[in-house]
Each structure stands twice: as structure tokens, then as C-alpha cells.
Amino acid sequence: MGLLLVYYITAFFEDHYASYYLIDHILKKVLPLDEAEYARKTAGMLWTDMIHPKTGKSETEMLEEENLALINILNSLGVKVYRPKEITVDFIKKNYGSDVLLNGFSQDFPRDNIAVIGNNLIELNLRTPLRKVDISGFKELLTDKCTKSNVRWFSMPHTELLAPPSPDTPLLEGGDVIVLGRTILVGNT
Q1: Pairing with 100, which of 1, 132, 182, 183 sits 20 to 30 Å away (CA)?
Q2: Cα 186 to chain center, whole Å?
Q3: Measured between alpha carbons, how far is 159 from 166 in angstroms, rounded to an integer?
Q4: pLDDT tens for residues 55-65?
Q5: Three-class DSSP category at 24
Q6: Which stretch of DSSP H or E encloses residue 93?
Q7: Is-contact 120 151, C-beta < 8 A?
């Protein structure tokens, strides 16, 4: 949990010095010393390249094990699980260009990409540049499922991949939308 907090916070800082200072402060207060050292050592690395000292596995491998365990539980309860396409460095280079990699990328919070209200699927506009390509992993799956049903797919206007959004840009993430029966609560990212 501490590592996720650290990665989440770094996304909000343009100034690397401020980001490093804040992260170092958080690491000293939140994480045990061995985990803080691991977070410092692996800062800025892809999860596929981060080998955990206790398990000898990459962060990606450990996350996939957790995902598969959850999927097995859901399947045992009769839930059909669909997974998005994995976004890779090669995928980004091919579809968006190498410059987009300057922002980094993440598929950590898939719920943020869409909101579902009734039979309406709304593709949202995420704030942080490192999250801009997240939706690409869903395109094939959503296209297939939406065209074979009565689901209507809407998309918010998206901001430029490499430019930070202006203060008046409409931004919305899945965590900003809560559906309570016929009441829909919408926050402001």
C-alpha cells in the first residue's frame, strides 16, 4: 500500500525536486526502513524491472498472481471476468510515439477510465499525463461488448497527451462518479 501511495503522489508533481522531497518525507514516515529503501532504489523503474528482494519476483509478476487469485474467486462465484489488453512500451511507441513515454504509463486503476450509468458507458478524461493512454487497453474489449449490446458509448473530449491540462479543462475520473440508485454523485477531479 505504501508503494502505491508513493507512485500516486509522484504523478501530481511537475517539479522533480518537490516530488523527491515529498516522497523522501513520506518514505521516512509511512514505510518500514526496508520498504522505504526498496522504494528509493526502484523509483522511476517499470514494474517489470523491479525485482522484489524478498520474493525474487518482479512487481508485475506479484500483481498478476494477486489478479489471478481474485479472478479465480470471482469465477467460482459465477462472475465472468474480462481483462483489458496490457499496455507495453512497444505498444505506446507504435500507437503514440516515444515522446509519450516521457510521462510514464500506468494501468493501476482501471475504474478511473470509464463510468457506467445504466446502459451508458462514458469514457472519461483523466488528469495526469501518465494516465492518458490507459483507455487504450480497453478499446478492443469495449468495442466488442458495446457493439453486441444496447450499451451506448460516449467519450469526453480528451486533452493532449504531452500537455498538462489547463485549469478550465473538464476532467473526470471513475472515482469521481458514484451511482446511488437514481441519484448520481459527481465530484471534481
Answers
A1: 1
A2: 20
A3: 9
A4: 899 888 988 89
A5: helix
A6: helix 89-95
A7: yes
